[in-house]
Amino acid sequence: MAELLANNLLNDIRKRRNRSADSNSDSPESKKLKDVVDDESNCEDEQNDEVMAALDSMETIGEQLSTILSRLKKLDIIESSVKNIETSLANLEARTTKLEDFEAVAKKDIEDLKNSCSFNGDQCKKSKDALKKQLDGQNERIASLQAKEKELSDKISELTSKGLYLEAYSRRENIKFFNIPEPPEGDEDTEETLRAFMETELGFRNARTAEIQRILSSVGRIRWQSTRKHDETA
């Protein structure tokens, strides 16, 4: 609106100047007539000069006003740019704030994760130590059982050796007799039968006094013969 007012003022000043120039280019007749009325129009001329001076001053003011308006327009553009920059800065600041908040949350999450990992690591270490201790105990028990097993195995081997030795010794001290005639019916004194067999059949002179701990007999009939011999007597 101010720019339009300044333009109208400048146009009015230009029109007044053009009228003054037209009056200076009049014909000689017009000049003579003008000279006649010069005295009467002196006051009017002075007024016109004042008006022209005022118009010049107004034109200068209008030009200055136009310059000011142009500068104001530039200021408006600058102000708009500044507002855009301020808006961009505000948006950037908001984003920066969000990033800072996100960074804080991320740091907290990372710290929590570190604490959790540390806790889990400690728990794993404790579990590992407990399992190792338990395993060591099991290994000790296994070693103890293995030692006992070896001891028992050695004892078994020793007893087996002793048993074999005793069996061999027993077999060495035992004597088996075969084809001893069966005693008459009613006479079942096995020891007497054996001593008589040793004395008569084998010619053992000390058969009556020899030490006999025990006698086991096993009778097996082969067949009936005149002598009625049995399979085995021991």
From TrEMBL:
Keywords: Coiled coil. The keyword Coiled coil applies. Residues 15-47 are annotated as: Disordered. Residues 37-47 have a biased composition (Acidic residues). It comes from the Eukaryota. Residues 128-162 form a coiled coil. This is Uncharacterized protein. It comes from Desmophyllum pertusum.
